[in-house]
Amino acid sequence: MEERSSSLRSKGNVFYKQALHGGFGFVAIRGKLARAHQLYHEALMASSNEDDTASCFKNLGMLYWLWGKTEIQQILANQSSHKPVSASLLSPCKFYLLKCVRSLLLASKHGSLSHKGEAWIQHIDSVLVNIVDWGVCVSSTLNVAHAPVLMYLCDAFENSSKDPELDMSITSGTCVAKAQLAHAKSLFEKGLQKISEEAPLKDYATCLRLLFDCNASLQRAQVFGGVGADISSDLQALQESVCLQQSICEAMQALDLGDKLITKAEEREPINVNMVQDSLDHYRQALQRARAVHVESEGMALNRIGKVYYDVLRQPEKGYKFHLQATQLALRSNSPCALQASWYLQSAEKIRMHEKQAADEQKRRREEHIKSQQRNYDEKCRSSILEKWLPALSKLKVEAERGVDSFLRYLYTEHPHPDLKRTLNLTSGKIVKDKAILRKAISHYHPDLNIRYGDEWKIFCEEICKLLNLKYRAWR
Does residue 304 sit in the same domain as residue 365? Predict the structure, then answer.
Protein backbone atom coordinates (compact mmCIF):
# COMPACT_ATOMS: atom_id res chain seq x y z
CA MET A 1 0.00 0.00 0.00
CA GLU A 2 2.87 2.37 0.82
CA GLU A 3 4.44 1.81 -2.60
CA ARG A 4 1.07 2.27 -4.31
CA SER A 5 0.45 5.59 -2.53
CA SER A 6 3.91 6.85 -3.44
CA SER A 7 3.46 5.72 -7.06
CA LEU A 8 0.13 7.49 -7.39
CA ARG A 9 1.58 10.69 -5.95
CA SER A 10 4.47 10.52 -8.42
CA LYS A 11 2.05 10.21 -11.32
CA GLY A 12 0.02 13.09 -9.92
CA ASN A 13 3.17 15.20 -9.64
CA VAL A 14 3.74 14.85 -13.39
CA PHE A 15 0.37 16.41 -14.20
CA TYR A 16 0.81 19.02 -11.43
CA LYS A 17 4.17 20.16 -12.80
CA GLN A 18 2.80 20.34 -16.35
CA ALA A 19 -0.02 22.58 -15.13
CA LEU A 20 2.40 24.63 -13.01
CA HIS A 21 4.88 25.42 -15.78
CA GLY A 22 2.14 26.29 -18.27
CA GLY A 23 2.39 26.27 -22.02
CA PHE A 24 -1.13 24.90 -22.36
CA GLY A 25 -4.55 26.43 -22.81
CA PHE A 26 -6.84 26.96 -19.86
CA VAL A 27 -8.98 23.92 -20.64
CA ALA A 28 -5.90 21.69 -20.90
CA ILE A 29 -4.48 23.04 -17.63
CA ARG A 30 -7.77 22.47 -15.88
CA GLY A 31 -7.83 18.90 -17.20
CA LYS A 32 -4.32 18.22 -15.93
CA LEU A 33 -5.21 19.64 -12.50
CA ALA A 34 -8.29 17.45 -12.39
CA ARG A 35 -6.20 14.40 -13.30
CA ALA A 36 -3.60 15.27 -10.63
CA HIS A 37 -6.38 15.73 -8.10
CA GLN A 38 -7.76 12.28 -8.89
CA LEU A 39 -4.36 10.64 -8.46
CA TYR A 40 -3.59 12.51 -5.19
CA HIS A 41 -6.98 11.53 -3.80
CA GLU A 42 -6.41 7.85 -4.71
CA ALA A 43 -2.97 8.09 -3.08
CA LEU A 44 -4.57 9.44 0.09
CA MET A 45 -7.03 6.54 0.13
CA ALA A 46 -4.10 4.12 -0.32
CA SER A 47 -2.01 5.69 2.46
CA SER A 48 -1.07 3.27 5.23
CA ASN A 49 0.98 5.53 7.55
CA GLU A 50 1.29 9.11 8.75
CA ASP A 51 4.15 9.89 6.37
CA ASP A 52 2.15 9.03 3.28
CA THR A 53 -0.95 10.77 4.63
CA ALA A 54 1.01 13.97 5.36
CA SER A 55 2.57 13.92 1.88
CA CYS A 56 -0.82 13.41 0.21
CA PHE A 57 -2.39 16.33 2.07
CA LYS A 58 0.57 18.53 1.18
CA ASN A 59 0.22 17.60 -2.50
CA LEU A 60 -3.50 18.31 -2.37
CA GLY A 61 -2.94 21.66 -0.64
CA MET A 62 -0.46 22.81 -3.26
CA LEU A 63 -2.78 21.58 -6.01
CA TYR A 64 -5.78 23.53 -4.67
CA TRP A 65 -3.67 26.68 -4.41
CA LEU A 66 -2.51 26.33 -8.03
CA TRP A 67 -6.07 25.64 -9.11
CA GLY A 68 -7.31 28.80 -7.40
CA LYS A 69 -4.55 30.86 -8.99
CA THR A 70 -5.35 29.41 -12.41
CA GLU A 71 -9.02 30.34 -12.09
CA ILE A 72 -8.12 33.92 -11.18
CA GLN A 73 -5.68 34.22 -14.09
CA GLN A 74 -8.41 33.06 -16.46
CA ILE A 75 -10.85 35.60 -15.03
CA LEU A 76 -8.32 38.40 -15.52
CA ALA A 77 -7.59 37.25 -19.07
CA ASN A 78 -11.29 37.26 -20.03
CA GLN A 79 -12.15 40.50 -18.25
CA SER A 80 -12.12 43.79 -20.13
CA SER A 81 -9.43 46.20 -18.94
CA HIS A 82 -12.03 48.97 -18.73
CA LYS A 83 -14.35 47.10 -16.39
CA PRO A 84 -13.72 46.05 -12.79
CA VAL A 85 -13.75 42.35 -11.94
CA SER A 86 -17.08 41.20 -10.57
CA ALA A 87 -16.87 39.61 -7.12
CA SER A 88 -19.32 36.90 -8.22
CA LEU A 89 -16.78 35.61 -10.78
CA LEU A 90 -14.33 34.92 -7.97
CA SER A 91 -16.68 32.74 -5.93
CA PRO A 92 -15.33 29.41 -7.39
CA CYS A 93 -11.92 30.34 -5.96
CA LYS A 94 -13.39 30.17 -2.46
CA PHE A 95 -13.75 26.39 -2.69
CA TYR A 96 -10.11 25.91 -3.73
CA LEU A 97 -8.74 28.23 -1.05
CA LEU A 98 -10.79 26.56 1.69
CA LYS A 99 -9.58 23.16 0.56
CA CYS A 100 -5.99 24.45 0.21
CA VAL A 101 -5.71 25.77 3.77
CA ARG A 102 -7.43 22.75 5.32
CA SER A 103 -5.24 20.29 3.39
CA LEU A 104 -2.00 22.06 4.34
CA LEU A 105 -3.01 22.20 8.01
CA LEU A 106 -3.84 18.48 7.90
CA ALA A 107 -0.45 17.87 6.29
CA SER A 108 1.21 19.75 9.13
CA LYS A 109 -0.76 17.76 11.72
CA HIS A 110 0.06 14.34 10.22
CA GLY A 111 3.64 15.39 9.52
CA SER A 112 4.18 16.20 13.19
CA LEU A 113 2.99 12.66 14.02
CA SER A 114 5.38 11.06 11.50
CA HIS A 115 9.10 11.16 10.92
CA LYS A 116 9.01 14.08 8.48
CA GLY A 117 11.19 16.31 10.62
CA GLU A 118 11.11 19.97 11.63
CA ALA A 119 12.25 21.27 8.24
CA TRP A 120 9.30 19.66 6.48
CA ILE A 121 6.83 21.17 8.97
CA GLN A 122 8.45 24.60 8.59
CA HIS A 123 8.08 24.36 4.82
CA ILE A 124 4.33 23.86 5.25
CA ASP A 125 4.23 26.92 7.51
CA SER A 126 6.14 28.99 4.95
CA VAL A 127 3.68 27.92 2.24
CA LEU A 128 0.77 29.12 4.39
CA VAL A 129 2.49 32.47 4.84
CA ASN A 130 3.15 32.69 1.09
CA ILE A 131 -0.52 32.02 0.37
CA VAL A 132 -1.52 34.99 2.51
CA ASP A 133 1.07 37.20 0.80
CA TRP A 134 -0.24 36.05 -2.57
CA GLY A 135 -3.79 36.90 -1.46
CA VAL A 136 -2.67 40.44 -0.60
CA CYS A 137 -1.06 40.92 -4.03
CA VAL A 138 -4.04 39.46 -5.89
CA SER A 139 -6.48 41.67 -3.99
CA SER A 140 -4.44 44.73 -4.89
CA THR A 141 -4.40 43.69 -8.57
CA LEU A 142 -8.11 42.89 -8.75
CA ASN A 143 -9.17 46.07 -6.91
CA VAL A 144 -12.56 44.58 -6.06
CA ALA A 145 -14.67 45.97 -3.21
CA HIS A 146 -14.27 44.09 0.08
CA ALA A 147 -11.25 42.13 -1.33
CA PRO A 148 -13.04 38.77 -1.75
CA VAL A 149 -9.83 36.70 -2.12
CA LEU A 150 -8.65 37.89 1.28
CA MET A 151 -12.12 37.21 2.67
CA TYR A 152 -11.92 33.65 1.37
CA LEU A 153 -8.54 33.17 3.03
CA CYS A 154 -9.82 34.62 6.29
CA ASP A 155 -12.80 32.27 6.17
CA ALA A 156 -10.52 29.34 5.37
CA PHE A 157 -8.28 29.93 8.38
CA GLU A 158 -11.17 30.69 10.72
CA ASN A 159 -13.09 27.58 9.66
CA SER A 160 -9.95 25.53 10.18
CA SER A 161 -9.50 26.98 13.66
CA LYS A 162 -12.95 25.62 14.55
CA ASP A 163 -12.26 22.18 13.04
CA PRO A 164 -11.65 19.62 15.84
CA GLU A 165 -9.49 17.54 13.48
CA LEU A 166 -6.97 20.36 13.15
CA ASP A 167 -4.46 21.82 15.60
CA MET A 168 -3.71 25.46 14.82
CA SER A 169 0.03 26.05 15.00
CA ILE A 170 1.64 29.34 15.88
CA THR A 171 2.33 29.93 12.19
CA SER A 172 -1.30 29.18 11.34
CA GLY A 173 -2.43 31.69 13.93
CA THR A 174 -0.08 34.24 12.44
CA CYS A 175 -1.54 33.56 8.99
CA VAL A 176 -5.06 34.13 10.31
CA ALA A 177 -4.04 37.43 11.87
CA LYS A 178 -2.05 38.42 8.78
CA ALA A 179 -4.92 37.61 6.42
CA GLN A 180 -7.41 39.53 8.54
CA LEU A 181 -5.00 42.45 8.83
CA ALA A 182 -4.47 42.54 5.06
CA HIS A 183 -8.22 42.38 4.52
CA ALA A 184 -8.73 45.20 7.02
CA LYS A 185 -6.10 47.33 5.27
CA SER A 186 -7.83 46.79 1.93
CA LEU A 187 -11.19 47.84 3.37
CA PHE A 188 -9.57 50.83 5.07
CA GLU A 189 -8.00 52.09 1.82
CA LYS A 190 -11.23 51.63 -0.15
CA GLY A 191 -13.15 53.46 2.56
CA LEU A 192 -10.81 56.46 2.37
CA GLN A 193 -11.17 56.53 -1.41
CA LYS A 194 -14.91 57.16 -0.99
CA ILE A 195 -14.28 60.48 0.77
CA SER A 196 -11.03 61.54 -0.88
CA GLU A 197 -10.74 64.92 -2.58
CA GLU A 198 -10.53 63.19 -5.95
CA ALA A 199 -13.90 61.51 -5.48
CA PRO A 200 -16.57 63.26 -7.64
CA LEU A 201 -19.23 62.52 -5.04
CA LYS A 202 -18.16 61.81 -1.50
CA ASP A 203 -19.95 58.70 -0.21
CA TYR A 204 -19.79 58.98 3.57
CA ALA A 205 -22.26 56.15 4.23
CA THR A 206 -20.22 53.64 2.20
CA CYS A 207 -17.00 54.83 3.82
CA LEU A 208 -18.44 54.29 7.30
CA ARG A 209 -19.72 50.85 6.32
CA LEU A 210 -16.28 49.84 5.00
CA LEU A 211 -14.60 51.15 8.15
CA PHE A 212 -17.08 49.19 10.25
CA ASP A 213 -16.20 46.00 8.32
CA CYS A 214 -12.53 46.88 8.67
CA ASN A 215 -12.93 47.16 12.43
CA ALA A 216 -14.67 43.77 12.50
CA SER A 217 -11.73 42.18 10.64
CA LEU A 218 -9.30 43.72 13.10
CA GLN A 219 -11.25 42.36 16.04
CA ARG A 220 -11.14 38.88 14.52
CA ALA A 221 -7.43 39.29 13.86
CA GLN A 222 -6.78 40.26 17.48
CA VAL A 223 -7.82 36.77 18.55
CA PHE A 224 -4.61 35.54 16.89
CA GLY A 225 -2.64 38.79 16.99
CA GLY A 226 -0.67 37.87 20.09
CA VAL A 227 1.35 35.29 18.20
CA GLY A 228 3.64 37.96 16.74
CA ALA A 229 4.80 41.28 18.11
CA ASP A 230 4.99 42.82 14.61
CA ILE A 231 1.45 41.84 13.74
CA SER A 232 0.16 43.01 17.12
CA SER A 233 1.72 46.44 16.64
CA ASP A 234 0.34 46.65 13.09
CA LEU A 235 -3.11 45.70 14.36
CA GLN A 236 -2.97 48.37 17.05
CA ALA A 237 -1.75 51.04 14.62
CA LEU A 238 -4.50 50.27 12.10
CA GLN A 239 -7.10 50.15 14.86
CA GLU A 240 -6.14 53.67 15.92
CA SER A 241 -6.27 54.87 12.30
CA VAL A 242 -9.72 53.34 11.81
CA CYS A 243 -11.07 55.05 14.94
CA LEU A 244 -9.59 58.34 13.79
CA GLN A 245 -11.04 58.07 10.27
CA GLN A 246 -14.43 57.01 11.61
CA SER A 247 -14.58 60.20 13.67
CA ILE A 248 -13.46 62.29 10.70
CA CYS A 249 -15.95 60.64 8.33
CA GLU A 250 -18.82 61.06 10.81
CA ALA A 251 -17.87 64.73 11.24
CA MET A 252 -17.70 65.29 7.47
CA GLN A 253 -21.02 63.52 6.97
CA ALA A 254 -22.65 65.70 9.63
CA LEU A 255 -21.19 68.83 7.99
CA ASP A 256 -22.55 67.74 4.61
CA LEU A 257 -26.04 67.16 6.05
CA GLY A 258 -25.93 70.52 7.81
CA ASP A 259 -24.92 72.31 4.59
CA LYS A 260 -27.80 70.72 2.67
CA LEU A 261 -30.32 71.66 5.35
CA ILE A 262 -29.20 75.28 5.66
CA THR A 263 -29.33 75.65 1.85
CA LYS A 264 -32.91 74.38 1.80
CA ALA A 265 -33.85 76.57 4.78
CA GLU A 266 -32.57 79.73 3.07
CA GLU A 267 -34.51 78.92 -0.11
CA ARG A 268 -37.80 79.15 1.80
CA GLU A 269 -39.59 82.47 2.27
CA PRO A 270 -39.83 83.14 5.13
CA ILE A 271 -36.77 81.17 6.20
CA ASN A 272 -37.52 77.76 7.74
CA VAL A 273 -36.32 78.15 11.35
CA ASN A 274 -36.78 74.45 12.13
CA MET A 275 -34.41 73.50 9.32
CA VAL A 276 -31.92 76.06 10.57
CA GLN A 277 -32.01 74.51 14.05
CA ASP A 278 -31.59 71.03 12.54
CA SER A 279 -28.56 72.22 10.59
CA LEU A 280 -27.08 73.61 13.80
CA ASP A 281 -27.60 70.22 15.45
CA HIS A 282 -25.65 68.53 12.64
CA TYR A 283 -22.86 71.11 12.90
CA ARG A 284 -22.65 70.57 16.66
CA GLN A 285 -22.50 66.82 16.08
CA ALA A 286 -19.64 67.36 13.62
CA LEU A 287 -17.87 69.54 16.17
CA GLN A 288 -18.22 66.85 18.82
CA ARG A 289 -16.87 64.11 16.51
CA ALA A 290 -13.92 66.18 15.27
CA ARG A 291 -12.87 67.93 18.50
CA ALA A 292 -9.22 67.22 19.32
CA VAL A 293 -9.20 64.69 16.44
CA HIS A 294 -9.22 66.59 13.14
CA VAL A 295 -8.43 70.30 12.93
CA GLU A 296 -9.96 70.73 9.46
CA SER A 297 -13.37 69.27 10.37
CA GLU A 298 -13.43 70.99 13.76
CA GLY A 299 -12.61 74.35 12.20
CA MET A 300 -15.24 73.89 9.47
CA ALA A 301 -17.88 73.05 12.09
CA LEU A 302 -17.05 76.15 14.16
CA ASN A 303 -17.11 78.28 11.01
CA ARG A 304 -20.50 76.89 9.93
CA ILE A 305 -22.08 77.48 13.34
CA GLY A 306 -20.71 81.01 13.36
CA LYS A 307 -22.15 81.70 9.88
CA VAL A 308 -25.61 80.43 10.87
CA TYR A 309 -25.76 82.63 13.96
CA TYR A 310 -24.17 85.66 12.28
CA ASP A 311 -25.77 85.67 8.82
CA VAL A 312 -28.96 83.62 9.15
CA LEU A 313 -30.26 84.06 12.69
CA ARG A 314 -28.86 87.62 12.93
CA GLN A 315 -27.18 87.01 16.28
CA PRO A 316 -23.75 88.53 15.60
CA GLU A 317 -22.44 88.23 19.14
CA LYS A 318 -23.02 84.47 19.20
CA GLY A 319 -21.66 84.09 15.69
CA TYR A 320 -18.56 86.11 16.59
CA LYS A 321 -17.70 83.72 19.44
CA PHE A 322 -17.68 80.69 17.13
CA HIS A 323 -15.72 82.49 14.41
CA LEU A 324 -13.20 83.48 17.07
CA GLN A 325 -12.87 79.86 18.22
CA ALA A 326 -12.29 78.77 14.60
CA THR A 327 -9.44 81.24 14.08
CA GLN A 328 -7.87 80.43 17.44
CA LEU A 329 -7.96 76.73 16.54
CA ALA A 330 -6.12 77.36 13.26
CA LEU A 331 -3.50 79.54 14.98
CA ARG A 332 -2.93 76.96 17.72
CA SER A 333 -2.48 74.20 15.16
CA ASN A 334 0.27 76.24 13.47
CA SER A 335 -0.60 74.40 10.25
CA PRO A 336 -0.03 76.20 6.92
CA CYS A 337 -2.97 74.27 5.45
CA ALA A 338 -5.30 75.43 8.23
CA LEU A 339 -4.16 79.04 7.92
CA GLN A 340 -4.88 78.97 4.18
CA ALA A 341 -8.20 77.12 4.43
CA SER A 342 -11.38 78.89 3.33
CA TRP A 343 -13.07 78.36 6.72
CA TYR A 344 -10.21 80.15 8.51
CA LEU A 345 -10.11 83.04 6.02
CA GLN A 346 -13.90 83.47 6.22
CA SER A 347 -13.91 83.46 10.02
CA ALA A 348 -10.96 85.86 10.16
CA GLU A 349 -12.79 88.29 7.82
CA LYS A 350 -15.97 88.06 9.92
CA ILE A 351 -13.99 88.83 13.06
CA ARG A 352 -12.35 91.85 11.39
CA MET A 353 -15.72 93.19 10.23
CA HIS A 354 -17.39 92.55 13.60
CA GLU A 355 -14.61 94.21 15.58
CA LYS A 356 -14.60 97.21 13.22
CA GLN A 357 -18.37 97.58 13.59
CA ALA A 358 -18.07 97.23 17.35
CA ALA A 359 -15.32 99.88 17.44
CA ASP A 360 -17.38 102.24 15.23
CA GLU A 361 -20.44 101.72 17.42
CA GLN A 362 -18.42 102.35 20.57
CA LYS A 363 -16.99 105.53 19.04
CA ARG A 364 -20.46 106.71 18.02
CA ARG A 365 -21.82 106.09 21.51
CA ARG A 366 -18.88 107.88 23.08
CA GLU A 367 -19.37 110.90 20.81
CA GLU A 368 -23.10 110.86 21.49
CA HIS A 369 -22.40 110.75 25.21
CA ILE A 370 -20.04 113.70 24.93
CA LYS A 371 -22.62 115.65 22.92
CA SER A 372 -25.30 114.79 25.44
CA GLN A 373 -23.12 115.98 28.28
CA GLN A 374 -22.36 119.17 26.37
CA ARG A 375 -26.06 119.75 25.71
CA ASN A 376 -26.85 119.26 29.37
CA TYR A 377 -24.07 121.65 30.34
CA ASP A 378 -25.17 124.22 27.78
CA GLU A 379 -28.75 123.96 28.97
CA LYS A 380 -27.71 124.56 32.55
CA CYS A 381 -25.60 127.54 31.53
CA ARG A 382 -28.41 128.92 29.39
CA SER A 383 -30.92 128.60 32.24
CA SER A 384 -28.55 130.41 34.56
CA ILE A 385 -27.96 133.22 32.04
CA LEU A 386 -31.66 133.59 31.22
CA GLU A 387 -32.42 133.85 34.90
CA LYS A 388 -29.96 136.74 35.09
CA TRP A 389 -31.55 138.49 32.06
CA LEU A 390 -35.12 137.77 33.11
CA PRO A 391 -35.98 141.35 34.33
CA ALA A 392 -34.58 142.89 31.14
CA LEU A 393 -36.46 140.43 28.95
CA SER A 394 -39.69 141.11 30.78
CA LYS A 395 -39.33 144.85 30.10
CA LEU A 396 -38.51 144.14 26.43
CA LYS A 397 -41.71 142.10 26.08
CA VAL A 398 -43.71 144.92 27.61
CA GLU A 399 -42.21 147.41 25.14
CA ALA A 400 -42.81 144.97 22.28
CA GLU A 401 -46.50 144.93 23.10
CA ARG A 402 -46.64 148.73 22.84
CA GLY A 403 -45.44 148.72 19.25
CA VAL A 404 -42.48 148.29 16.96
CA ASP A 405 -41.15 151.85 17.35
CA SER A 406 -41.38 151.78 21.11
CA PHE A 407 -39.72 148.35 21.21
CA LEU A 408 -36.77 149.32 18.98
CA ARG A 409 -36.25 152.65 20.70
CA TYR A 410 -36.15 150.95 24.08
CA LEU A 411 -33.91 148.12 22.79
CA TYR A 412 -31.24 150.35 21.26
CA THR A 413 -31.36 152.76 24.19
CA GLU A 414 -31.27 150.33 27.11
CA HIS A 415 -29.40 147.44 25.46
CA PRO A 416 -27.24 148.95 22.74
CA HIS A 417 -25.03 146.64 20.72
CA PRO A 418 -21.41 146.39 21.95
CA ASP A 419 -20.37 147.44 18.46
CA LEU A 420 -21.56 151.05 18.42
CA LYS A 421 -21.71 151.02 14.63
CA ARG A 422 -24.64 148.60 14.85
CA THR A 423 -27.40 151.04 15.63
CA LEU A 424 -30.45 152.74 14.14
CA ASN A 425 -31.34 156.40 13.61
CA LEU A 426 -33.47 157.04 16.64
CA THR A 427 -33.78 160.84 16.18
CA SER A 428 -36.61 160.78 13.64
CA GLY A 429 -40.16 160.52 14.82
CA LYS A 430 -40.99 157.17 13.20
CA ILE A 431 -38.25 154.54 13.19
CA VAL A 432 -39.87 151.61 11.31
CA LYS A 433 -41.01 152.62 7.86
CA ASP A 434 -40.75 149.18 6.23
CA LYS A 435 -39.56 145.60 6.94
CA ALA A 436 -36.01 146.51 5.96
CA ILE A 437 -35.51 148.23 9.32
CA LEU A 438 -36.60 145.07 11.14
CA ARG A 439 -34.22 142.97 9.01
CA LYS A 440 -31.42 145.33 9.91
CA ALA A 441 -32.22 145.07 13.60
CA ILE A 442 -32.31 141.28 13.32
CA SER A 443 -28.88 141.31 11.67
CA HIS A 444 -27.55 143.48 14.53
CA TYR A 445 -28.73 141.08 17.24
CA HIS A 446 -28.55 137.77 15.38
CA PRO A 447 -26.92 135.26 17.80
CA ASP A 448 -24.63 133.78 15.15
CA LEU A 449 -23.17 137.24 14.56
CA ASN A 450 -22.67 137.89 18.25
CA ILE A 451 -20.68 134.85 19.36
CA ARG A 452 -17.53 136.92 19.82
CA TYR A 453 -19.15 138.98 22.57
CA GLY A 454 -19.58 136.05 24.97
CA ASP A 455 -22.19 133.47 25.84
CA GLU A 456 -24.30 135.78 28.00
CA TRP A 457 -24.73 138.37 25.27
CA LYS A 458 -25.30 135.65 22.62
CA ILE A 459 -28.10 134.01 24.64
CA PHE A 460 -29.64 137.42 25.33
CA CYS A 461 -29.53 138.12 21.56
CA GLU A 462 -31.39 134.86 20.92
CA GLU A 463 -34.31 136.06 23.01
CA ILE A 464 -34.20 139.50 21.38
CA CYS A 465 -34.30 137.94 17.91
CA LYS A 466 -37.34 135.87 18.89
CA LEU A 467 -39.20 139.10 19.62
CA LEU A 468 -37.88 140.78 16.46
CA ASN A 469 -38.94 137.79 14.31
CA LEU A 470 -42.42 137.94 15.78
CA LYS A 471 -42.67 141.59 14.80
CA TYR A 472 -41.23 140.85 11.36
CA ARG A 473 -43.78 138.11 10.64
CA ALA A 474 -46.64 140.29 11.96
CA TRP A 475 -45.69 143.32 9.77
CA ARG A 476 -48.24 144.20 7.11
Answer: no
